[in-house]
Amino acid sequence: MLKLLFVGDIVGRPGREFVRDRLPRLRSEHGLDFVIANGENAAAGAGITGTIAKSILESGVDAITLGDHVWDQRGWETEITQMERICRPANLPATCPGWDHLIIESRGFRLAVFTVLGRQYLGMKADCPFRCADRMVEQLRAQADAIVVEIHAEATSEKQALGWHLDGRVTAVIGTHTHVPTADARVLPKGTAFICDIGMTGPYASVLGREVAPVVSKFLDGMPRRFEVATGDVRLSGALIEISASMARAEKIELLTVRQPA
Question: Which of 30, 69, 165, 179 is catalytic?
Fold first, then answer.
């Protein structure tokens, strides 16, 4: 049995520091073979930089995925070409820089991961996530022992539909982006682990990781404001998945939440 932890969207410095401080112990306590983390909000809540990406990888993360904020930081389109353990969404145009998937290995077991962006309520130019996932699964089947798909999307219906579409063909379909963990973690009938959203790794005394007051005020009067990353009640949220090495099926999935000590 192999164990994978998929860490929800790392938000700003609070999220990064929490991963740095707690992940080594988590790897030991849970006997983790793989750690994948979404890092698209790691730089002040929007995007990522090369320096930040390296610090996250040095914290014990094996692979970093990205989402709709992939190009928010100036210069990242050049830096991403020099990073070997980071992949951008696979359904972006083929001309975009960066890897569209990653393959990581532990104990001789090869695990492939890629991300697709949803198209409901997201404005990025992206191909159909379903057709892209079909193409990527076919491409990776001979290169890896198991495949994990991240769907970075707003709509729970789109996430659930992709889970059912890929059931039995991949080991897990993991939802990210909304920063709010859902209570629907389960293994689908044909052996694919699924959850709509694994939440965020960052400050939960917030509105999706941002300071409460300016967000509430924006809802009240519509005036533009800076939404700074909050600092209170920092947690790590993610999905802990057990994988049968012989069958490449998910045996178990559960939401894992780690809080700051009282």
Answer: 69
- The burial class, CB within 10 Å (0-12 / 13-18 / 19+), for 220 is exposed
C-alpha 175/C-alpha 31 separation (Å) is: 23
| Catalytic residue list contains 69 | yes
Q: What is the model's pTM? A: 0.96
Residues composing the chain: 262
| Residue 6 · residue 198 · CB < 8 Å | yes
Burial class, 106, CB count within 10 angstroms (exposed 0-12 / middle 13-18 / buried 19+): middle
Domain count, the chain: 1
Query: Tell me: the pLDDT tens digits for 26-49?
Result: 999 999 999 999 999 999 999 999
- Interval 177-191: pLDDT, tens: 999 999 999 999 999
Q: Identify the domain containing residue 144 by its residue range.
A: 2-259
